[in-house]
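Box 3.1 — From sequence to structure: DUF805 domain-containing protein
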Amino acid sequence: MMNNDMFGNTMWAGHWLWMLVIAIVVVIPAWRICQRTGYPGWLGGLILIPIVNLVLLYFIAFADWPSDKTGDRNG
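Predicted structure (token representation):
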């Protein structure tokens, strides 16, 4: 029924491009936050995994940051 629609595969490619842009916009700040708190930056990539992103948020909010112990506030 909708095999010959106007968008075809272009809409599918646009969807993945949009998801890539959103992932970059979200992961880069999460990466920097993890680095500045003294944790490895790759933890910021966990922000893309549902439920794990909430656990990461609470972990960063309530854990003792390694940078607080060393006095390094700039990451």
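Summary of the box: Helices lie at 9-37, 52-62, 66-70.
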